[in-house]
Structure formats: structure tokens, C-alpha cells
């Protein structure tokens, strides 16, 4: 099985996670930083990571409001997905509600200092997105957030 990456796209950062070769476990990979709302730069950096890791599929977090509606951030993710697809990358949009909160909770319970949490929170949110996708694909239990 080919590796899959998970993306948590923000306005200035994109957390990236990657699956193991069997597609069972997600781990943090890196965080791409870019100028505010410069998604062209973000795209180039993400494509570089995709190529370096031989990835053919991306699970991109889709921000939704708690009522399920897609707002401005969700629309940005949908546009970013289309840019990736135009590059020949298969993209799966994945509901990311509460993933950042879950990631923050995990880091706090691990006694990670606030400064370090800020540096890796996007990667950890990407891990949450990708792991929930992998769990669903394998028919395993999906961790509630």
C-alpha cells in the first residue's frame, strides 16, 4: 500500500502527517509555513513533500461549523483540494471538526510545554485527521473527539 498524507491547512501553516506503509498508523511529518493566505506557496511546499514521499493520496481536513455547514475556511480547503487534484493527486476531504482541540488535549496530557505545543499543534491535528481516516478505512474504531 502506498503512503497517504494528512493535511491540516490553516491561514499561515499546513500541518502534515504521513501513514505507515501498511496504512494503519499516522505520524507527524512536518509543518509548512507560508505568508498569510499565500496558498500558491503552500501548494508548492506540499507538492514537494508529496513528491519526496511518493504519495498519491492526500486526506485534507475540511473545516466545518458545528452544525455541519462549510464556512470560509472550508471553502479554502475545497479550493486547495482542486489545486492538488489538478496536479494529479487524489484528494479525500475529511471532516476535521475538533481535531485541533483533540491534538491540544493530547499534547497537554503529555506535559508538552506551551511553546512546543504551538510549534507542533498543526502536525498533531494532521495526525488526528489522517488517523481517523485510516481507522474508518480499515473498519476499525474511530476515536471520538
Overview of the structural elements:
This protein is of the alpha/beta class and 145 residues long. The chain has four helices and five strands; from the N terminus they run E-E-E-H-E-H-E-H-H. The longest helix has 24 residues. The protein starts with a strand and ends in an 8-residue tail after the last helix. The model has no long low-confidence stretch (mean pLDDT 86).
Brief overview, please?
Helix content is 44%, strand content 23%.
Biggest sheet statistics: 5 strands, mixed
Secondary-structure element sequence? Answer: EEEHEHEHH
The general outline is globular
Number of distinct helices: 4
Radius of gyration: 14 Å
Secondary structure: number of strands: 5
**Structural class of the helix and strand makeup?**
alpha/beta
List keywords for this structure.
4 helices; 145 residues; globular; alpha/beta
What's the structural blueprint in terms of helices and strands?
Layout: E1 4-9, E2 13-19, E3 26-33, H1 39-52, E4 57-62, H2 72-86, E5 90-95, H3 99-109, H4 114-137
Parallel strand pairs: 1-4, 4-5
Antiparallel strand pairs: 1-2, 2-3
Amino acid at each position: 500500500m502506498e503512503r497517504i498524507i494528512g493535511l491540516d491547512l490553516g491561514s499561515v501553516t499546513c500541518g502534515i502527517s504521513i501513514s505507515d506503509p501498511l496504512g494503519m498508523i499516522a505520524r507527524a511529518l512536518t509543518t509548512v509555513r507560508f505568508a498569510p493566505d499565500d496558498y500558491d506557496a503552500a501548494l508548492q511546499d506540499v507538492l514537494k513533500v508529496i513528491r519526496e514521499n511518493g504519495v498519491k493520496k492526500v486526506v485534507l481536513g475540511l473545516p466545518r461549523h458545528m452544525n455541519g455547514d462549510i464556512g470560509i475556511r472550508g471553502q479554502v480547503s475545497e479550493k486547495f483540494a482542486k489545486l492538488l487534484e489538478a496536479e494529479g493527486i487524489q484528494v479525500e476531504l475529511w471532516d476535521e471538526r475538533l481535531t485541533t482541540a483533540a491534538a491540544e488535549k493530547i499534547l497537554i496530557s503529555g506535559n508538552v510545554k506551551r511553546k512546543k505545543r504551538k510549534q507542533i499543534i498543526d502536525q498533531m491535528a494532521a495526525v488526528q485527521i489522517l488517523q481517523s481516516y485510516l481507522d474508518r478505512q480499515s473498519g476499525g474504531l474511530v476515536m471520538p473527539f
